[in-house]
Amino acid sequence: MRALRFLIENKNTVFFTLLVALVLSLYLLVYLFSHTPRPPYPEELKYIAIDEKGHEVSRALPNLNEHQDDEEIFLSVVIPSYNETGRILLMLTDAISFLKEKYGSRWEIVIVDDGSTDNTTQYCLKICKEQFKLNYEQFRIIKFSQNRGKGGAVRQGFLHIRGKYGLFADADGASKFSDVEKLIDATSKIETSSTDLKTTKPAVAIGSRAHMVNTEAVIKRSMIRNCLMYGFHTLVFIFGIRSIKDTQCGFKLFNRAAILKIFPYLHTEGWIFDVEILILAIRKRIQIEEIPISWHEVDGSKMALAIDSIKMAKDLVIIRMAYLLGIYRDNKKC
């Protein structure tokens, strides 16, 4: 009775104490599950390429800020790759053919080998030398000693590009590469809309498959895959990204100003990294344009559908709560 009387008489204090305990418990839980990018090993701060004499070389990676006035490279293409010897050739053929025709020599491809076990790096170097006849100025490979995840590979690639624009494109070639023109046009329009002539307005353009929801490319997917897709989109909507219909398309373009405001602050290295990129852009009021592109399903995905879908859902909640609780901060680089 005394305990009950005490609770009644001090209900406000008890309620406040329970509320504080709940918030602290939530904070601790989110903190424990939050992400910090793995620092690169020394060998991961170098790129591997073919020199002018056809020899394999390893050199220090450039830093993102070193080439902010470099007009020689218009477009950098970052391709995260994990065991892609069976798929990457078609993607590279499509990309390099377009890049040569459209931009001459003002482009570079940066492949980030995410700890592959199928000799992806050596395979890419071989076709670079024998088939595409490219050297270190246009074709570079960053090889991870240990797998970090797709987000970690994309982040590392973008922190060491030289181009005015940076595109990340999936190694499977599911997106029609020439559609990058649409993304560049969209970012250019955002840039020219700025009234500040001294600085470049940050801009993001993302490829979208949302217009294909009722097309054969999506309908042919398994029922489980489509159910998981719709469930994930619902979670994304609930947790705050309501203006973008397709967050997961592996075809996204950023101008240099946007790259500098997003990628040094990116925590997530797993599949859900796309969502954190967009959350950062929205929080920093960076304009995002969603552009319909041509896309087709390609076999050989490295994603374990059930397990990775659960991980993505968990990580989505963690990302959102980490920003709300101040564990992740917009102005603190990782």
UniProtKB/TrEMBL annotation:
Pfam families, per database record: Glycos_transf_2
Top class in the EC scheme: transferase
Highest taxon, organism lineage: Eukaryota
GO CC terms: endoplasmic reticulum membrane
Main subcellular location of this protein, as a coarse class: endoplasmic reticulum
EC number: 2.4.1.117
Keyword Transmembrane helix: yes
Protein's pathway: Protein modification; protein glycosylation
Catalysed reactions listed for this entry: a di-trans,poly-cis-dolichyl phosphate + UDP-alpha-D-glucose = a di-trans,poly-cis-dolichyl beta-D-glucosyl phosphate + UDP
Domain annotation Glycosyltransferase 2-like: ranges: 76-245
GO terms, biological process: protein N-linked glycosylation
Transmembrane spans: 12-33
Compartments, as annotated in UniProt: Endoplasmic reticulum membrane
Membrane topology type: Single-pass membrane protein
Keyword vocabulary terms for this entry: Endoplasmic reticulum, Glycosyltransferase, Membrane, Signal-anchor, Transferase, Transmembrane, Transmembrane helix
GO terms, molecular function: dolichyl-phosphate beta-glucosyltransferase activity
Family to which the UniProt record says this protein belongs: Belongs to the glycosyltransferase 2 family.
Protein name, UniProt field: dolichyl-phosphate beta-glucosyltransferase
Species the sequence originates in: Saccharomyces cerevisiae (strain AWRI1631) (Baker's yeast)
